[in-house]
Structures are given as C-alpha cells and as structure tokens.
Amino acid sequence: MTTFTVLSPGTGKPLLERPWATPKDIQAALSLAEAQKHAWRRTPLAERSRWVAAFVDAVVESKDAAGKELTEQMGRPIRYSAGEIGGFEERARAMIAMAEDALGAIRPPEKEGFERFVSREPLGLVLALAPWNYPWLTAVNVIVPALLAGNVVLLKHSDQTPLVAERLFAAAEKAGLPKGVFQYVHASHPDVARMAQDSRIDYVAFTGSVAGGRAVKGAIGDRFIAMGLELGGKDAAYVAPDADFDFSVENLVDGAFFNSGQSCCGIERIYVHESIYPRFVDAFVEKVHEYSLGDPLLESTTLGPVVRRANKERIAAQIEAAVKSGARALVDQSRFEVPASSAYMAPEVLVDVTHDMDAMREETFGPLACIAPVSSDEEAIEKINDSRYGLTSGIWTSDIERARTMAKELETGTVFMNRCDYLDPELAWVGVKDSGRGCTLSKVGFESLTRPKSHHFRIR
C-alpha cells in the first residue's frame, strides 16, 4: 500500500489519508540530516536555544487548531485537548531553561599544570518514534532536548496522529530552523526497522508498548548505538488510612480515567487500607458515574472513545475474563449510552480481583480501575511490586514520613505522594523492569542524548 488512512475513533469513518514515505523519501531525509548535523552541533547553545524557543512559540500559536485535530485523530474530549499543548510548552520551556547547566562542562578540582574537563557532545541523528495517546507530550520529551544538545532529529509519529508531526514540522519551518535539523517521515513499521539499522542513525527513542520496544531493540540488532525505550505500565496506588479521603477519591478517579485510561502512567491498580476500603469503593464508583461519555467534539463530554474498536474489544475481553474468574463489576452500565458499532466504551471498576487475573497483571490501557484491600503498608508495597512493570506508583497519605519510607521499597521509576499521572519536567522520567530503559526530562535526560568527552591537557 502506498497510503494509509486515519479512522475517526468516534465514528470509525475515514478522517484523512496520507502517503507513506517511499524508500527514496527516507533516504533523502537521512542524507539531509547527515549533511546538516555537523553545522548544527557547531551552532552555539545560546543560538540553538533561541531557535528552539521560537519553535515552541510557533507550536503554542496553533494551540486551538492543534487541539481540535488531536480530538479528531485520537478521541480525547475537546475540553481537554488544548491542555496537552500547554503541557508541551511547560516541558519545552523548562528544558530550554536547564540546558546551559545540563550541557555545561564537568570540571574536577584544579590540578597544577593541567586543564581537565568533561564536555557533553551531541550524538548526531536522533530517530524519535512517538505514539498516539499523548502525541505532543511524548514527542517533546525527545525533540526539544535533542535539538538543544546539538543533535538533529527525524520524527516518525504514529499513523493515528500524523497531523501532529506535520504541525511540528510547520512550527520548525516558521521558527526558521535550518533545513534538515528537524524533519518527519510517515513511515511503515518495516521502514522504521530499516532506518534503525542505517548507519546514519545515532540514537533511537521509542515510546510505546513492550512488544514495540522489543521490535525496536531487535531492529537495532548488533549496532553499537544507544536507545531510549519508554514502554508500558500497570501503575498502582495505595490509599493509606490517614489519606485525605475526598481528595484521594477525586484524584484517583481522574488518574484512572483521564484520556479514557490511555496513559502509560495512568492508575490501573488501587490498593486501599481495609479500614476505609468499603467506603472508598462506594465513593469511587459514585464519582465514576458522574462521567459523561459521548462525542469528543462536544464541550460537555468528559469521556471519549478509546482509539480503535480493536482496543475496545481487547479491553472488554480482559474485563470479561476477570469477571469469569470471580471479580465483580460495579459500574452501572445503563448510565452510559454506548454505540455498539464504535470505539466508545463505558468506564468500569472491578473489585474482588487477584493477581492471577490479567486485569491486575497486564496493561489495560483503557477505562478500567481495579480496587483491592490491603491490611498494611507492607502488604501494599508487596502488591505494588508484584508486577513486571515499574513506571510509577503513588501513595495517598497525610504522613510524608510514610511516603518516604515506602518510596525506598517501591520498584518504580517515579514515586508520587498525593498525585499521579503527571510528568514534572525537572524530574527524571524513567521506567524499570518491562517499563523500559533510559531516561527523559530533567538535567539527567540530557545525558542520554549526549556522550561524554574527556579533555586532559598538560599545559606546563
């Protein structure tokens, strides 16, 4: 096939069509990037920062139009979509502000007769592979620090959200970035694999599923280049007996069902201290019943469709299997009008769940929350860690010492207290176990996109 079609998540009908990049197109993009990378790395950081800031300005100017396009392509309610552009700006501005410090030379104590320092050198050409669920936020995590560090970038976005790649490229052109510094291609999976094997690619950054991460790792094969893999999650929360009850309920409902649960760090497992468990479950379900499922282009809608009908069927099968194994579904489905022939899906809450069920072990990536009681902090830690994933975990408590103590034992890249489903650009974003490898955001994130070079000069 020479083209691909984006289907509307809400209607299932064609939304737009785009041509796949041809082998000639891909080779031209790689050659242009290769030709430009030496000039870009020699460009002073202050100048690169000004260009990147202008690029961010151009993105923000298109906020409303970009938000509507996002809703049409992946189904998030329009009332929330422009907020992702706000998140894009927040992260980008933070990374611009920290670039000078993050990329500055590391100087050991002075040694008489020598000049010694370690510089951070760009890798060259970064291939960024971005997903559809947060297409602006996942892209900015790589694009902005890579450009600031002196790399050139080739973006391949999900074929569900191609307009994001096109709008990013238009912003780069408006900002006046030199031709070849930032490009995109609409490439098929086989072509992406071939690009990963190309000697002109110096780093691959992928955000997506565990299976996709394995495919990227396999495509790179025996090449000695680094990669960043931000993969799946089965993120868990613990509600301690001293937690702010109302806040915890509201915060965790949002953490589980925002974006129809299609977030790598969305809450999928909730462990509640047994002393407040029955009350918490009742309040949680009551809050879920307040959602309005419907057309994502309507301002009144708070829950849109999942991205594809096939995703809906997979999520429904996971729920059905759990119920057959003894779980109880608590949401009154009659409160939600769900068209049978679409990707719309009502939210669901399961209790009486066990870790023998896929609903508690495998990533759902949909509007489902599983809630289970625990008798102690120690049991909560054990249950949270009983997972092959390790992206984030959250503790709802009024006792910061409890959070500090538990955080030392939790096997996740981020531990939250009284919040979830948020990336602070000044903190490292990292997964452990099957949630990936490498790091983005914060000053630490720049290290993945550069290599150290030691300078050891005898001066007398």
Protein model, in words:
The protein is α/β, with parallel strands linked by helices. It folds into two domains: 3-231 and 435-458, Aldehyde Dehydrogenase, Chain A, domain 1 (3-Layer(aba) Sandwich); 235-424, 3-Layer(aba) Sandwich (Aldehyde Dehydrogenase, Chain A, domain 2), CATH 3.40.309. 42% of the residues lie in helices and 20% in strands. It has 15 helices and 19 strands. It has helices spanning 23-42, 45-61, 63-74, 78-103, 135-148, 162-175, 189-197, 210-220, 245-257, 277-288, 309-324, 358-361, 377-385, 400-407, 442-448; strands at 3-7, 14-19, 114-122, 125-130, 152-157, 182-184, 203-207, 226-230, 235-239, 267-273, 328-329, 348-351, 368-374, 389-390, 392-396, 414-417, 432-433, 436-437, 450-458. Strands 11-12-13-10-9-15-16 form a seven-stranded mixed β-sheet, sandwiched between helices. A six-stranded mixed β-sheet has the order 6-5-4-7-8-18, sandwiched between helices. Strands 1-2 form a two-stranded antiparallel sheet.
